[in-house]
Design a protein that fits this description.
globular; about 10% strand; alpha/beta; about 400 residues; three-stranded mixed beta sheet
């Protein structure tokens, strides 16, 4: 399964496809599951003004309607389309859903209706809102077996959410749609590689914060001729105290990552400052992606044995997330399900992702880097090392383009 969401506009506000027709043709040809073009507010980093003329939630909704209508009318059926939901708070998210839900209605659009959902904005990081949204979608008839079998959560880096999504998926499969699949994506392995950070170990202890651990890895021109196995080298030289191999690093030697030695002349005719080349970043990205996916799988395995993260632990020991979610979706009455969700508001609050960041520079108030990862040491003495990265395709492309 390949899920794609290319940008109609890139990070500079420049249109990447000349027409929507060209965009649809590209998506239908290259992907199996696609997200239509929702239009979000996006500011130009230099001017602070809208990068594409959209500055309010109302304008974003209007523009998204235009794109949705075009996509519905012109899709050829080769691939499935997901209906993207946005909104920075409960009110905006509710308004967006009410405006966009019709595009999943087969009674209105027939076989050209969208085939599932993509949760963005607050929908993906606020368990309280997510559960309410899912109850609404179910009772509106837009999570039907064979018609709407996929929910994809955009840019979700929190390890604990992998097990929460599993519980939600299990409950909905049991009580409503046995074919439902909840998926999520994450750009953090690429952000980490772009900043020279390697996933080196993970934390899954009972009643603790579960994290993907990463830290500065080997970057020195002296390793350009070093043929030691990579993991042996970084441990022997105390670059890492602990390092878990992936199939990628298991085949690497030190010089594979630190390719450029002393005197290496780059494409601009000057000696390069770093020992890494483009392939170095690619290798580290591959390692990080593997370790991230393995961590998600291991988290679910441990959760199934009763090992749980602190996020889902009830201090009094009375509440169990899986049992509550199962009961919510077992109820056949929308209002009773919503009332039950509201009943556990305090419990959901301890599962929220970071809504802000107190550091040198905040990029996105919905992502808190230090809540998601354990970083022992910055790669360089850089005043922007505490920057928080928005876990989205837009920012990922921008970060990697700087290398």
């Amino acid at each position: 399964m390949f899920i794609a969401k290319p940008n109609l506009f890139n990070t500079d506000g420049v249109q990447e496809f000349s027409t929507e027709k060209e965009a649809i043709k590209y998506l239908e040809k290259t992907t199996g599951i696609e997200m239509k073009y929702d239009v979000k507010r996006r500011k130009d980093k230099k001017t602070g003004k809208s990068a594409h003329g959209i500055s309010t939630i109302e304008e974003a909704i209007t523009a998204t309607h235009i794109n949705n209508e075009y996509f519905v009318a012109n899709r050829d059926g080769r691939c499935k389309f997901l209906n993207v939901l946005q909104g920075r708070n409960h009110g905006q998210s509710d308004a967006w859903y009410e405006e966009m839900k019709k595009y999943c209605d087969t009674n209105v659009y027939g076989d050209k209706a969208f085939n599932g959902w993509a949760f963005g904005g607050q929908n993906k990081i606020d368990i309280h809102l997510m559960l309410k949204r899912l109850v609404g979608i179910i009772h509106d008839g837009f999570l039907e077996e064979g018609k709407h079998d996929l929910i994809h959560c955009l840019g979700t880096s929190i390890m604990e959410y992998a097990v929460l999504f599993s519980d939600i998926q299990r409950a909905i499969r049991k009580h409503h749609n046995p074919k439902l699949q909840i998926t999520f994506d994450c750009a953090s392995p690429f952000f980490a590689a772009a900043k020279g950070l390697a996933y080196n170990n993970n934390t899954f202890e009972h009643n603790t914060k579960w994290t993907y651990a990463m830290e500065k890895t080997a970057e020195n021109k002296k390793y350009a001729t070093d043929t030691r196995k990579f993991s042996d080298g970084v441990l022997a030289d105390t670059i890492h105290k602990v390092f878990t191999d992936s199939p990628v690093t298991d085949m690497m030697v030190m010089k594979d990552l630190c390719y450029r030695g002393q005197g290496f002349i780059g494409q601009h005719g000057k000696e390069t400052k770093t020992s890494w080349d483009t392939l170095s970043y690619t290798l580290l990205q591959a390692h990080n992606v593997y370790q991230h996916m393995s961590a998600v799988q291991e988290a679910n395995r441990r959760y199934e044995t009763g090992i749980k993260p602190k996020m889902v632990m009830d201090p009094l020991g009375h509440l169990n997330f899986a049992d509550i979610v199962d009961e919510i979706f077992s109820l056949k009455d929308r209002e009773k399900s919503l009332a039950m969700i509201d009943q556990y508001t305090k419990f959901w609050m301890q599962m929220k992702a970071g809504q802000g960041f107190s550091g040198k520079k905040t990029v996105n108030a919905h992502t808190m880097f230090d809540q998601l990862f354990s970083i022992d040491e910055p790669i360089i003495d850089d005043p922007e090392i505490d920057e928080v990265f928005d876990d989205s395709d837009d920012v990922m492309q921008e970060v990697l383009s700087e290398q």
